[in-house]
Amino acid sequence: MTKLDSGLRHDWQVEEIEALMDLPFNDILYQAHTVYRQYFDTNSIQISTLLNIKTGGCPEDCGYCSQSAHHQSGLEKEKLMQKDEILAAAKKAKEKGASRFCMGAAWRSPQQRDMPGLCEIITEVNNLGLETCMTLGMLDQDKAKQLKAAGLDYYNHNLDTSPEYYDKVITTRAYQDRLDTLQVVRDSGMKVCCGGILGLGENRRDRARLLQTLANLAEHPESVPINMLIKVEGTPLENVAPVDSLEFIRVIAVARILMPKSMVRLSAGRLEMNDEMQALCFFAGANSIFYGERLLTADNPEPEHDHQLFSRLGLRTNH
């Protein structure tokens, strides 16, 4: 069996990660759960709610995304939501058990004219007693500092896939652009939320390279969302073969081993996962979910179903 180093490492080799992914399923679950227990209460789940605050019209050509202006997904472009609408959604999320409120806007990067309003929203959501997270596209140092000064706790900017496979999915932005934004976020003092998407047509080496890139950052992301592709009609990836459910669980397990102190979030695609698959993901080290009926532009499990599942599994939500 692969020797497990339970400490934090930032020097993982891709061959080591592939060796972990190649382990018998029971062995990888055992190793991941052992690490999980060293750092977390394994019966506690952190709940985040994600609101799309600006829909459609994005100039990026991400092959999976319904919000790209390059694709014919049928999604209508909308302006930035009003502050009162966003705050009402945040209050509702808190009432239903969320401890973090995440806000996403379909931009390549925010314009300076939008920053004062965004900063005001961050401050007021924080005043509700919620952690705040935003995903607004690429950031420069000045905008990152403005968000930090307003009190933004987390900034989400996913790598999506491996450096080698990236240009098969996105051509309007380079992989290094994403890494640069992560560095700007880290330098500002905000926490990093960064993960990827499985089921883009990538292979196991690509999944290993994605995890390697995340784990070998100078600091591990505090939050690592692992998404399963939601196929959207009218996008280039609408007919891609789905990722195997056991392979998805393996990736959750390896993410837990490589980044033992990070919150590993079960993100997009939960509606396609049965309860048993989600339970194995939680055992393998996923300790955070996106919660609520909608996830940006896609459906998500009903909150009541999640509560029933948590009850059956004996899981507590972490307020």
Question: Could you characterize what this model shows?
Answer:
The protein is an alpha/beta fold. It has one domain (about 40-310): TIM Barrel, CATH 3.20.20.70. The chain is built from ten helices and twelve strands. It has helices at about 15-20, 25-40, 85-95, 115-125, 140-150, 175-190, 205-215, 245-260, 275-285, 305-315, and strands spanning about 45-55, 100-105, 130-135, 155, 190-195, 195-200, 225-230, 265, 290, 295, 300, 315-319. β4 (about 155), α6 (about 175-190) and β5 (about 190-195) form a beta-alpha-beta unit. α7 packs parallel to α8.
User: What integer is the average pLDDT?
Assistant: 87
Number of domain modules: 1
CATH 2nd-level architecture: Alpha-Beta Barrel
Task: Sum up the overall morphology in one term.
Answer: globular
The poorly predicted ranges are: 1-6
Strand content: 15-25%
| CATH structural class | Alpha Beta
Radius of gyration equals 18 Å
Report the order of strands and helices.
Answer: HHEHEHEHEHEEHEHEHEEEHE
CATH topology: TIM Barrel
Going by CATH, the homologous superfamily would be Aldolase class I
Helix fraction bin: 25-40%
- Structural class, by secondary structure, is alpha/beta
How many DSSP helices? 10
Number of strands: 12
The CA-CA distance between the termini, in Å, is: 37 Å
- Main sheet: strands, sense, barrel: 10 strands, parallel
